[in-house]
Amino acid sequence: MSGARPGERDEGARRVWFVTGASRGLGRAVTESLLDHGDRVVATVRSVSSLDDLAGKYGERIVPMALDVTDRAAVFAVVAEAAERTGRIDVVLNNAGYGLAGAVEEISERQVREQFDVNFFGALWVTQAVLPVLRRQGRGHILQMSSIAGVTTYPNLGAYCASKWALEAASEALAQEVAGFGVRVTLVEAGEFRTDWSAGSMVRAAPKSAYDAVLAKRRHGLSGAYAHLQPGDPGRVGAALLTLVEAEAPPLRVLLGNGAAELAPSVLRGRLTEWEQWRELAATTDAPPGSAA
Predict the structure, then answer these.
(1) Is 226 a catalytic residue?
(2) Residue 1 placed within a domain
């Protein structure tokens, strides 16, 4: 008989994860690492057949479920079914997402809306759907797969960066709202990893010739030419996430990859310097002390 109190996970049992975008890239690698660790994973994908090999290897420890994260009603239904089938959800990994390459002037309305539908709204719908489960449990951890592009920006990736910045803002507010329920939130700000993110997974806007010279280097970098050559090893991400969820006081933000860890502080130092340089202008917009409304 379990010795856990209501709302607590029996330490003798493995965690139950809910992972979106588990069919490829980081999602697939993390799912395999968690299963190897002995945890149980509700792995959501567009097509469950993409997980047939894992189902054959890991049996009941993996629960493949079809899900389009842009369908809010479907998200709520799948989360409810997952919680019923597994009995609980300990960790949510909002990993589903993709890149959109194109200058701000080049990207179409449809491309931008679809980018946000997956990268931001998809994560939002999963978060909203799972929160009642986590609140009832009195515990849980939501891992939002952000990016170093959620800290800084890159030419030719404006919409992608915007979707990650939106995720960062909502998640920071969320962390303050749910801490009292025993729910933790961590933004995983990943650098470059050896996946097909810049190749088969990338959507590209129709280029405008006006930007040929300005964006030549960036377009080549996002052409897929360097796919699977990046420094980050997807096979190591699962262990890093396990370290996070096992921490007594996990961070709100964590950087993955040396490149991200070196870049983020320099970006923030640059902002601080610029804000300080224009500090006097900020003061000019306040009403003088004692003045009438």
Answers:
(1) no
(2) no
